[in-house]
Design a protein that fits this description.
Layout: E1 2-9, H1 13-23, E2 33-41, H2 48-54, E3 60-62, H3 65-69, E4 76-79, H4 86-95, E5 99-102, H5 110-122, E6 128-130, H6 138-149, E7 155-164, H7 180-183, H8 188-202, E8 207-215, E9 220-222, E10 228-230, E11 236-245, E12 250-259, E13 267-275, E14 278-283, E15 289-294, H9 317-322, E16 329-332, H10 351-368, H11 381-400, E17 404-405
Parallel strand pairs: 1-2, 1-4, 2-3, 4-5, 5-6, 7-12
Antiparallel strand pairs: 7-13, 8-11, 8-17, 9-10, 11-12, 13-14, 14-15, 15-16
Helix pairs in contact: 1-10, 4-5, 5-11, 8-11
Length: 409
Amino acid sequence: MKTIKFGIIGAGLMGREFASAAARWCHLLDMPARPEIVAVCDKNSAIFGWYRDNFPSIRQYTDDYRQILSNPEVDAVYCAVPHNLHEEIYCAIIKSGKHLMGEKPFGIDLKANRAILAALKNHPDIFARCSSEFPFFPAVQRIAAMIEKGSFGQIIEVNAAFLHSSDLDPLKPMNWKRMIEFNGEYGVMGDLGLHVCHIPFRAGWVPKNVRAILSDIVKERPDGKGGKAPCKTWDNATLFCETMDPMSGELFPMTLKTQRIAPGEKDTWQIEILGTKASARFSTKNPKRLEIMEYHGGGAPCGNPQGNFAEPSVATSEARAKEGEQVWQEIDMGYESAFKTITGGIFEFGFTDAILQMWAAFIYEFMEGKPFAKFAGCVTPAEAALSHRLFTAALESQANKSVVTIIKQ
């Protein structure tokens, strides 16, 4: 099996998630290559201890990312740094000839994103993708298969959201994600938005315009020095989008919601698709449950004109659908992953499994030149660029309290 040697720039939370995924690569079956961590860069040297304890393959530790890029042993880089550093470091990675897995939003703003895409255009041999793990949950893969088959019919409505309560406590100290100079004007959209956009964008559901409602709920927080500091980033965002269904050629409403202050939500990613032939919904709040409703028509209309309220002759949900009833099915999903693993299909799938599947998608596409399946691929630079055009329009919409057309390029 071929080995792809990685450097990590930004060795914190998500850097360790990648390293852990690489350490359990044997969990995957039939992969064309495997990642090996050989170099780590972070300004906080205290974090290196965990890597030293667990990864004897790492031969370089540094606080200067340029040393990673000048290391001839490094083939590819995973970069997980604050948004204000994306343009500088991503462009440097690309220009150095290293392949890139970046973090969202792939640039602090539209200008930075365009600079990154320009660097990629000038270096077409570089493979670059952006992180987004939630589409790899088995239920979402099942929904994705329905999209590909056209099972939903004409799309009526799509609702997608990423909700958590990390900032619900107003006494939580300030960090970089609440500082506009580091996180950017997008606020919560830059932090969470691409996770919400991944499936709709891959489906070809491209927003034509947006009316955004952005909320700055907690306006100041403890600064860690005994005082208070202003919070200048948006806490919550709701985007109402008029969107084209490429299969039917008809417009439909799509709502994209990201929230850092969502009472009752620990960390919930969810999607709901309503169509003329079928509907589906999934939430990580219950990661084993997939809800599907199939409707074939041909039955009696609502309110039986004969006044016969007896139970249907056939009790199965499929038969009821054929009789014209609308019946939500609850499917108990097992470990039905895009990429084969050693885990039996009856067992549960979790967040770290989604991380492993996402990295399998990156490695597979890097090696094979195409994704394993349409919805079994990481976010592309073009999809990240679309999110920037959407979020930039959302800022304008909020400022002017108006519907804003999303620019094409």
